[in-house]
Each structure stands twice: as C-alpha cells, then as structure tokens.
Amino acid sequence: MTHAIDVRDLHKHFGNNEVLKGIDFTVEPGQVVCVIGPSGSGKSTLLRCVNLLETPTRGRVFVEGVEITDPDVDIDAVRRRIGMVFQQFNLFPHMSALQNVMIAQQRVLKRGRKEAEVVARENLEKVGVGAKCDARPAQLSGGQQQRVAIARALAMNPDLMLFDEPTSALDPELVGDVLTVMRKLAEEGMTMLVVTHEMGFARDVADRVVFMDGGVIVEDGPPSQVIGDPQHERTRAFLRRVL
Ligand code: ADP
Ligand code: MG
C-alpha cells in the first residue's frame, strides 16, 4: 500500500541551525497522526517540508507515492491534494466567509462560480458556520474564522490535511468547536497530520502520536504508549509541563 506521507532521513538547516536532524516517519491513508513537542523543536518546519513550503536540505519526502523532493515534481499538482490549516487563519479580510471559501476553487480548480458557491455553502454548513456565509472575518469569532479556514481547505477536496496548532490562537472557550470539527473529519476517514498541544485530542483521536524534541523524533507510537506510558525521560518531562 502507498503511504499517504513518507518522510525519509529529512534534514533542514537554516544557516548553521540544523532544525531537523534526520526525521523518518509515515502516515497511512485514513490515519490521524499528532505531532507534539516543545516550542522550537521543529514541528512547523516538518509540516512545512511536507508540502514544500520549506525545501528540505537533505532527505526525501513522498506524498501518496510521489516524491515531492524530486526537482522535476509538479508541486502545484501535489499541493492541490493537501489541505493546510495554520494557527493564524489567513482569511482575506475584505471578503465574506463564502467568498473566502470560493476563491481558490475558482482560481486553482477553475470551478465555475455556481459550483464553487454550492461547494462553499456545503462546507461552511459542515463546520457549523453555515449561517455566517455573508460575514467578513472581523465579524466572526476566532473559532468561527478557523472553521471557515477549515471549510476553505475542505472545499478543495484534499486527500490529506495538515494542521499546525489550529487552536493555539483561540480563546479557550472556542477551542472545543474547532476540535469537534477535526474529530468529525477524522471519523470520516480524512488523513490528518496535526501539530497540537491539545493532549486530550491527541489521546482520543490520534492513531499515532509523534513526540519531537530538538529536531528529532524521540517517540512514535499509539497515544496509549507515547502519552500514557512514555519510554523516554524527555517525553515524560514535556508531558509533565503540558498535562
Ligand atoms: P516548532 O514549530 O516546533 O515551535 P519550528 O519548526 O517553528 O518549531 O522552529 C524550529 C527552529 O527553526 C527554531 O529555532 C526556529 O527559530 C527556526 N526557524 C524556523 N523557521 C525559520 C526560518 N524561516 N528561518 C530561520 N530559522 C527558522
Ligand atoms: Mg510551530
């Protein structure tokens, strides 16, 4: 079976700073993998290497069997299959929620306005903000904005979704609504790679949890092991701080 994501001996330097020091892991189709670890450990850089927002210094990355680190790859074609959700929602402030979810469908997938609107409404409905189609981002709560951003990614019919701390910018009372949407996606079988500090989500939803520290993977296993019974002192020390 082809891995959804296959990362082999991935290294990334920024100048003299080696941020990723040989990362190996895979995500299978339909799996949810949560990446946890201290700030600065390289989690975002790893995620960004999976859609080539960062160019790896060394190593190979495959997405659905296509080597994206091959210089001849059509990266735009690969990126169309990958949805990405960031900590900051990056919505267009001058556009309504509906327009935000339509624009990439029209520009990138060349869908007509009618079809893009139907798909946008479906997805806004799905994430629970169907009543907010005409609102601009400033008129929405952070949790609603993040759900619009998720709807925008889903409207492109991605095969897999990357989330980089999707709830870290939210007021605590808004985190649950976003996690509920992510849980639903996981239950529907979406392949998801999620950087998060939400240990409850990781424990309940993830098939595997990857603990990173200092640019390496320290532990990789089911949540019952990595969170419930960590084998390494570094993992235990991190979990003591966040649990
Ligand atoms: P995390 O997401 O785990 O907090 P990051 O991947 O964002 O960690 O960052 C890991 C390290 O890489 C940090 O030391 C950070 O300063 C550095 N870094 C990240 N992006 C860049 C960049 N574009 N240029 C230089 N250094 C970077
Ligand atoms: Mg980060």
Beta-strand content: 15-25%
What is the N-to-C succession of helices and strands?
Answer: EEEHEEHEHHHEHEHEEHH
Number of helices: 9
* Spatial arrangement of strands, main beta sheet: 6-7-8-3-9-10
| Secondary structure: helix percent | 25-40%
Distinct small-molecule ligands in the complex: adenosine-5'-diphosphate, magnesium ion
Mean pLDDT: 97
Rg from alpha-carbon coordinates: 18 Å
Number of strands: 10
- Poorly predicted residue ranges: none
| Biggest sheet descriptor | 6 strands, mixed
How far apart lie the N and C ends?
36 Å
Which characteristics define this entry?
243 residues, alpha/beta, 6-stranded mixed beta sheet, 4-stranded antiparallel beta sheet, binds adenosine-5'-diphosphate, binds magnesium ion, ABC_transporter-like_CS
Q: In brief, what are we looking at here?
A:
The protein is of the alpha/beta class. It is built from nine helices and ten strands. Strands 6-7-8-3-9-10 form a six-stranded mixed sheet, sandwiched between helices. The chain has a four-stranded antiparallel sheet with strand order 2-1-4-5, covered by helices on one side.
